[in-house]
Specification:
Helices cover 41% and strands 16% of the residues. By secondary structure, the protein is of the alpha/beta class.
Amino acid sequence: MPTVQTGDIETHYEQRGTGPPIVFVHGALSDHTAAAQQLRAFGDDYTAIAYDLRGHGRTTNPHDTAYSIDQLAEDLHEFVDALGLNRPVLCGVSMGGMIAQVYASRYPDRLGGLVLADTFTPTFVSRRDRIERTVLTNVLVGLVRVVGYGRARALVLWFGRKLEGDNTSSLRVEAFPEMDTVAAVNSLQAVASFHETDVDLAAITVPTLVLYGEHEASVVSRHASTLAAGIPDVTVREVPDAGHASPWDNPAFFERAIREFLAQVERPTD
């Protein structure tokens, strides 16, 4: 994998193909391999790129310092600049969607389009949302911290499947890389603190596609209407037979939806 210096970290990434750039941003506890299928699918027509976030995969996190979604968005800004990408389309999944929201709200003129998959906004949309998100994230962070990520990983994924009513199969241990416990805690805490991040959805002026799995847990899917109401140019689509890992659960539909979206927003190569 090639690397590029982005601020205080060396970021590892994989790149395939030539053409308009599309950058895939993975979720918490994952790495660039989460987008392996999409790199293969889009590498024929696009410059398809996936990278390891700070503290994930092969990208280090100096001194295991805690970080926020804000920090990860600035890392993404450094990454796009370092590669010299001209108005890429961002595709952020789960925590990657949170990062992409922040980036798109702050640097809309730097993007050609935005895909937000299986993600939620920083805003608590109801009292129930506040309680469920707070309890869920705190329980996960506490579990990983107490027993270690190696032992907690299978239980975390089992719980995720239960939230989806056992309707999907992609949330399995072998789909997620091994991580140090400190790195896993930092990743989950960044998600847990997302409500502290200021995101102006109205500032996201690029065409945006929002994707949610049919069986996505309500703690995430209830934010589809918030994204639809706040982003000026947005399309929301449900991914059938999919849960929180919709790119894995139904890659054919996921990729077709993105291709149809890209055909609408595609611009001439400079």
